[in-house]
From TrEMBL:
<dbReference type="GO" id="GO:0042802">
    <property type="term" value="F:identical protein binding"/>
</dbReference>
<dbReference type="GO" id="GO:0004342">
    <property type="term" value="F:glucosamine-6-phosphate deaminase activity"/>
</dbReference>
<dbReference type="InterPro" id="IPR037171">
    <property type="entry name" value="NagB/RpiA_transferase-like"/>
</dbReference>
<comment type="similarity">
    <text>Belongs to the glucosamine/galactosamine-6-phosphate isomerase family. NagB subfamily.</text>
</comment>
<dbReference type="GO" id="GO:0006043">
    <property type="term" value="P:glucosamine catabolic process"/>
</dbReference>
<dbReference type="InterPro" id="IPR004547">
    <property type="entry name" value="Glucosamine6P_isomerase"/>
</dbReference>
<comment type="function">
    <text>Catalyzes the reversible isomerization-deamination of glucosamine 6-phosphate (GlcN6P) to form fructose 6-phosphate (Fru6P) and ammonium ion.</text>
</comment>
<feature type="domain" description="Glucosamine/galactosamine-6-phosphate isomerase">
    <location>
        <begin position="12"/>
        <end position="226"/>
    </location>
</feature>
<feature type="active site" description="For ring-opening step">
    <location>
        <position position="136"/>
    </location>
</feature>
<dbReference type="Pfam" id="PF01182">
    <property type="entry name" value="Glucosamine_iso"/>
</dbReference>
<dbReference type="GO" id="GO:0005737">
    <property type="term" value="C:cytoplasm"/>
</dbReference>
<dbReference type="GO" id="GO:0019262">
    <property type="term" value="P:N-acetylneuraminate catabolic process"/>
</dbReference>
<keyword id="KW-0378">Hydrolase</keyword>
<dbReference type="InterPro" id="IPR006148">
    <property type="entry name" value="Glc/Gal-6P_isomerase"/>
</dbReference>
<protein>
    <recommendedName>
        <fullName>Glucosamine-6-phosphate deaminase</fullName>
        <ecNumber>3.5.99.6</ecNumber>
    </recommendedName>
</protein>
<feature type="active site" description="For ring-opening step">
    <location>
        <position position="143"/>
    </location>
</feature>
<comment type="pathway">
    <text>Amino-sugar metabolism; N-acetylneuraminate degradation; D-fructose 6-phosphate from N-acetylneuraminate: step 5/5.</text>
</comment>
Length: 242
């Protein structure tokens, strides 16, 4: 894993955007894997700004998001489809049909998992996957204990994850109990992975990412086996890492 140390959230977002923009310019048919949450919103802001100023085009880019809550449709303000439309897709020239987010309202979530895997395969795999990291080391919604061999699957969310995400809902009760997520093996097949971390709440998971043995009890640890991972972390997130 390559570590890029930055000062703060702004610098992390700018560095990540520079990498994505250069890639998209060189590869107009890029296949991007995208994340939601607080971590990548600054990256998306930078992509939008650059698109407006410099005209970087996403007309032939395809995207696959990591995960979606089960039970929320794309019009629900807390669905990840809605998040992506609001924070990125509505503001760049990407074609909506080229953006894929798992369908949380699918009548057959198992089939939805297979459909998604097939779509990723047909797109030729993900070129750059953006990741955040959970406090318990989760990547996407792959909680501790998820097999490293997992493909896109349905998960029961850990209480700690529901609680962390409840800040976006009116109450904890409204936070869905299940989600669909890309599996760890699916993520590991991406050609390049960009993991972003900012703030002191990420200090412990970032320390563990670099020091803990590779184990399913800390899902992000598997990234150490990937040949092409860049971690961009700020001072606060690195405060416990030597
Ligand atoms: C989001 C996702 C999650 C988040 C993680 C960190 O699509 O898959 O794994 O990356 O929970 O969330 P934030 O960025 O809100 O700290």
């Amino acid at each position: 894993m390559k570590l890029i140390q930055v000062r703060d959230y702004e610098e992390m977002s700018k560095k990540a955007a520079d990498i994505v923009i250069s890639y998209v310019k060189a590869n107009p048919n890029a296949v991007l894997g995208l994340a939601t949450g607080s971590t990548p919103t600054g990256l998306y802001k930078n992509l939008i700004e650059d698109h407006r100023k410099n005209g970087t085009s996403y007309k032939s880019v395809r995207t696959f998001n990591l995960d979606e809550y089960i039970g929320l449709d794309g019009n629900h303000p807390q669905s990840y489809r809605y998040f992506m439309d609001e924070h990125l897709f509505n503001h760049i020239d990407i074609l909506k049909e080229n953006t894929s987010v798992l369908n949380g309202k699918s009548e057959n979530p198992e089939k939805e998992c297979e459909r998604y895997e097939q779509m990723i395969r047909e797109a030729g795999g993900i070129h750059i996957q953006i990741l955040g990291i959970g406090r318990n080391g989760h990547i996407a919604f792959n909680e501790p204990g998820t097999p490293f061999t997992s493909r896109t699957h349905i998960v029961k969310l850990a209480e700690s994850t529901r609680q962390a995400n409840s800040r976006f809902f009116q109450s904890l009760d409204e936070v869905p109990t299940h989600s669909i997520t890309m599996g760890i093996e699916t993520i590991m097949e991406s050609r390049e992975i960009l993991l972003l971390a900012s703030g002191s709440s990420k200090a412990e998971p970032i320390r563990k990412l670099f020091t803990e043995p590779i184990s399913e009890s800390f899902p992000a640890s598997i990234l150490r086996k990937h040949p092409n991972v860049i971690v961009i972390a700020d001072q606060e997130a690195l405060k416990d890492t030597d």
